[in-house]
Here is the input.
Amino acid sequence: MSAQVAAVDHAHDDHGHHHHEPTFIEKYIFSTDHKMISKQYLITGLIMGIIGIAMSLLMRLQLAWPDHQFTVFEVLLGKWGEGGVMDPNIYLALVTIHGTIMVFFVLTAGLSGTFSNLLIPLQIGARDMASGFLNMVSYWLFFVSSVIMISSLFVEAGPAAAGWTIYPPLSALPNSISASGLGMTLWLVSMAIFIASSLLGSLNYIVTVLNLRTKGMTMTRLPLTIWAFFVTAIIGVVSFPVLFSAALLLIMDRSFGTSFFLSDIYIGGEVLHNSGGSPVLFEHLFWFLGHPEVYIVLLPALGITSEIISTNSRKPIFGYRAMVASILAIAFLSTIVWGHHMFISGMNPFLGSVFTFTTLLIAIPSAVKSFNYITTLWKGNLQFNPAMLFSIGLVSTFITGGLTGIILGDSTLDINVHDTYFVVAHFHLVMGISALYGLFAGVYHWFPKMFEGRMMNKNLGYVHFWVTALGAYGVFFPMHFIGMAGLPRRYYTNTAFPYFDDLADVNQIITIAALITAAAQLVFLYNFISSMFYGKIGALNPWKSNTLEWTTEHEHIHGNWVGAIPHVHRWPYDYSKLNKDESDYVIPGQDFVPQTVPLQDNEEEMHH
Amino acid sequence: MTGLLALIVIVLLSVTAWQMSKIFKLSKLKSDVQEDSTVANDSDNNRQGKLMMIFMGIFYFIMIYCFLYYSKFYLPEASSEHGSDYDSLMFISIALIMFVQVITQALLHYFGYKYRGKKGQRALFYADNDKLEAIWTIIPVIVLAGLIIYGLFTWSDIMNFEEEEDSIVIELYAKRFAWEARYAGADNTLGNANVRFIEGANTVGIDVSDTDAMDDVVAGEIHLPVGRQVIFKLRSQDVLHSAYMPHFRAQMNVVPGMITQFSFTPSITTKEIRDTPYMQEKMLRIRDIRKDKNAKSIAAGDGPIDEYNEFDYYLLCNKICGASHYNMQLKIIVETQEEYDEWMATQTTFGEKIAAE
Here is the structure.
């Protein structure tokens, strides 16, 4: 009801402009405006995130106190948690759906979808995406796939439970686990729709960046956010179709009796007719997307961080060209490293050598990025807004998590830590926590652009950051050590091996840290929702930033700029640039020069 | 132990809470003056910069604590010959990444503190330095090249093993949720097998018409003579599994439809590893824990828990395979050649088993 009233109000605000008044449905539901679509992505992503994180807490409770009966299991899991005891099948389902939701629905759609949509038109100086209609279709396909994924939780035989990697034959044979019946079908359908959504979105981003830049916005004047979104979209277009084909072949194996991935199987007391297929083929197809996917998740976060660190350091990002080059290098390398997930899959050991080589190469652009971030902080005038804290936090977890990649990317060392908690610690830090920090940083920073000038509360932001930062390391740093103890991941309980008994304490500490960290996210949710309605209206350019989005009005209008689209005269990182005789900033008394300001007489022209 | 850890967690949390309350108080005081509660001002920058240092301190404390108290959980020294190469590569890699970790995290957080914003402070306009960037591109290149080369040599030694004359061939047969070991027998040649032959006592699908198969021995435990190369041929009956033998630094997936392999030479017998100080200490800890568990279990009316007095090597499944994935294990016993021969003599061959049926 109140939403409708608000809608009417906003509609009235629009009177000044010359297009027809959008109805409630046009404005809030089937909107073709990139700003609204971005908010739709964000809110859907956040809801999926709440579900995904809640699932991880259930798993952590089970792992820390396997003998304890939790009422919460019975409440949330129903027949799968009868008497407060978690069923082993539902544990595997939680593992699967948590992974799927976090990787695809939160960190792909929720992060890249939100900020690509919001920032690409605003930062390149475009009125909207190249195709607003496709953009709308993309969101609604994402919405449908989310609904299908969630509805699979309520299937009688349980949701998919073969791990987020859904390796066949487990995922292909309903008589291996009951979850591979309808639950798995829904998973595949949901992901197929998700891929369609992602492709429509990505194509739109690519076309928009290439064609709709305003006058003067050359590729080398693009903010690093746009570079990151642009390259991410390209990786998505290259790799997502391969996952689609893998899913399609799997559907055929499941329903039409083909044998792409199945051979020589005896299950449930009978031999299956399938012959000649190979599960390793599926692994190749899956990881051909699966690994680039890591960078689809991470690159937007790194782009957001670059922009925020530069703005809040009041310094240009160090080594702009090197940053662009490393984004491109990471994107290229990301498509030729997938085999490092398969060192011990049974593929030819020679391939293992090749993939070790390409994988460790990726450490180089990553190292360059980290060093450049640190150098950007050096001799800055750091403004610790919550977004800045999360960006620094991202650099920290990116380094901590990235370094252990040197161990996992080495085929030899992978032998003994493969599929242990060492891996879980590694990827949660380097892509999970890092990308989430990127998401949070982006929300704090661009909240006023999404919600018509309203700002989030900074003190709640500080609480949110520090508790999360401590908690995340409390969860994932000790986890490396139980991994080095040879503790396998995806075990419902470790009690079947008395050898692991002395790791129980560590598991409890991890769970406690996880509960605290999750509680801190409630602070964020409160801040987010209350600021949406009651947040203070801030300045037009609250962070004193150079990029174009801050030249728009608070009020959202279709087309973004009231008058003509601004032209661009410089790169986006002229922070604290001095005039020729170094007596003052280029614009006296103002330590930033927006991209719309032409070259001044008193400044030197730089080529970055 | 738990008490101490809980205490540390509580202390850390209360430090956080204390800092938080201070932030709240200070921000309230300030709000009277002018500032809005949305953009960081000088006092925020000052406080957050200092918190950066405090956070760094806590983070380093967590790292040091983990290395001091949790590194005892690391697997013991490898019980296979290639394992010692593995261990030294691992040691070098960890030393290297911790070196980089300690330096970069220190710089990151220290710069956060040192350059916290002040009104009037001028940031340095510093956009490029090709020399610096070249340096930190080239250093990782060199270090990684070293690691890659070292790693690849080790990898190729482990994976492209040469079959020795006295090697033992064992087929590891995986099915949900158990393992079986098929020894190649006197001729050291495994008989043909396929899941289509599974019937009755022939649980691993051996081809009955293959004469090589008659002396094969199917066992529910793995016995290995110390110092002799063993070649595992891995076969799955149903879904993907992974044969993980952490103490031997050995792991290989088991894939239906194909035969994968892994080879190592065990170097420490079960008896020897039980006597190592590492294992003695570990067993003491576990015995203590299990005593408590046992008492609790009896008090709850669930009866005593399984005994666990001595360490045994094990093989476990490390690829999600269904509901009981977490309990798919097999005991491995490494012993002297004589003990191994004795055990082998008590086993019935496949031929005898079939004849008995």
